[in-house]
Structures are given as structure tokens and as C-alpha cells.
Amino acid sequence: MTLIDDDRITAGRLAHLDALESHAMFVMREVAAERERPVVLFSGGKDSVVLLHLAAKAFAPARIPFQVMHVDTGHNFAEVIDFRDRRVAELGAELVVASVQQSIDQGRVADPGPLGSRNRLQSVTLLDAIAEHRFDACFGGARRDEDKARAKERIYSVRDEFGQWEPRNQRPELWRLYNGRVRPGEHLRVFPISDWTELDVWEYIARENLELPEIYYAHEREVVERDGMLLAVNEWIVPGPGETAVVEKVRYRTVGDASCTGAVRSVATTVHDVIEEICASTLTERGATRADDKFSEASMEDRKREGYF
């Protein structure tokens, strides 16, 4: 390939990222204008890092005009929580933490035990927080390429008075015209980066020079191989019969509940190394690294009907 061809490809990718960024910021501004109490869902993961950056950029030089919320399972990677707190403080935003542990203590959800995943429990905690704070629109970092259920969802996703999603009742979004009206008790889930791919996200991170939690890059970590996944050894994951903990060089492609999020073997220590690795990968990020997606009895669509992100 000639240098000219390389330049054309680079220019094309940059124009593509400009279009994605412009549309995402347009969506966020539209929601801010139409709804009274929007909130950004922020976990410290790469997609929510991009989402929060887009919010800051969309309303600069003013501060982000809404709160930031994290649904905290209590089973977290320490590096991600440290990054979350630091990033929110840098932006001068107000952080709301909705606690799954509090939901358990209040009897709102059943405790799955010290070694059980709390990922699915987040739905109740999220819906309770939305009701408590009267949020009428929640920005999320979900993308259509992650899961077939997310591929069916619109940019503006209406949730009924019970927080449930009904795929058959979605609104048309022809010519990128969005209907942000909701009835009393309903709210919107809004996905500004729904059309982005994992590669788009990483190329945007590279272009904008965004900081991420360290676990997104290759590092040494004690892991145990279970059901084809590398799970970090911690207080929620301990080696079982026939399993041996080993130190591997790994990184995380997606970050969720530490009890069900797996790592991948990797030597990618920079954002450009990660981009090259993604281009060569044949596995989706969630399909390869999320036990709740691979082995859960409930599909993503079932969980979304219950109020999941």
C-alpha cells in the first residue's frame, strides 16, 4: 500500500470519528434541552469514559449540566473505582452512587452470596435510584455491536413506569429525528454512542488522548482459568477444586462486576497496541470476557426488559 493510500485511509477514519462525535454531542444537547433531569451513567469503563468526555465537550466551556451516576455492585476493581472518583472530580461533576449492597440490606434484592455475581441485581438498584432522584433520562454507553439485544434498541429507548423495555413499542428514528417525550413515571435511556464499534471507541480514545483505568492495558495479574475465561483472583474469585492460580500478562476489554468479568492474554501496553490487537481479534469483547453473557440463564434482552442498562 502506498503512502497516499495510507493517508486516505487515515483521513477517512478521522472524518468517520468526527461524524460519530458530532452526532453523539447532538444527541446529548437535544436531551439536555428536552428533559428536566438527565443523568450520565458512569462506571469508569472505556465506553463511559468516552461518554463523559463527549458530555464535557458538548457543553464546554460550561460544566456538564447534569449529575453523574454509578451503579456500584460492591464487587469492583479497585483501579476502576479510583479512576472513577478522580475523573469525576476533575470535571467538577456531582457523583451519585447507587449501591447494590444497600439494595441487599434493604431486602430489595436477594444476596447471591460472597462468591455470586451481582451483575443482574443492578437493575433494581438503578430503577430505585432513578425514582429517588427523579431522573427522566439516563445516558448510557451501550453500543449495538456488543449484543443482538442492544442492536435492536433505538438511540432513544423509552422505559415504562416499571422501568421495563418493550422492543415492539420503540419509536421510529427516521432521518435522526428523535422524540424525547415521556409520560409521567416513564423515562428515557439514551445511547449516544450506540452506532460506535469497539474499534471506533479505541480510535477515539487515541485521538482525544483519553486516560483509562490501568487494567485496560497489559499487566501481570493472578488469574484462574474457568469456563474458558481468565478471572482475577480476589475475595470473590478463589481457585476451586482442580483449579490453579497463575500469574499471567493480561488486560481487560470490558469492565464490569469483578466476579464475572474476564481478562484476555495480551502484550498490548499502549492504546495503539490495543487497536492492532482488536483489528486481529475474532471474538467480541463481551462474548469473550463476560460470564453473565456467556452463561446466564437470562438473555440480555430479558435483562433489559427488567430494567437493565
Description of the structure:
The chain is α/β, with parallel strands linked by helices. It has two domains: 3-200 and 298-306, 3-Layer(aba) Sandwich (Rossmann fold), CATH 3.40.50.620; 211-294, no CATH class. Helices cover 38% and strands 16% of the residues. The chain has helices at 3-34, 46-58, 78-91, 100-105, 122-133, 148-151, 198-208, 271-280, 285-289, 291-294, 300-306; strands at residues 38-41, 67-72, 95-99, 137-139, 156-159, 187-190, 219-226, 229-232, 246-251, 262-265. The strands form two sheets. Strands 3-2-1-4-6-5 form a six-stranded mixed sheet. A four-stranded antiparallel barrel has the order 7-8-10-9. Strand 1 (38-41), helix 2 (46-58) and strand 2 form a beta-alpha-beta unit. Helix 1 crosses helix 2 and helix 7 (198-208) packs antiparallel against helix 8. The chain is globular, with a radius of gyration of 19 Å.
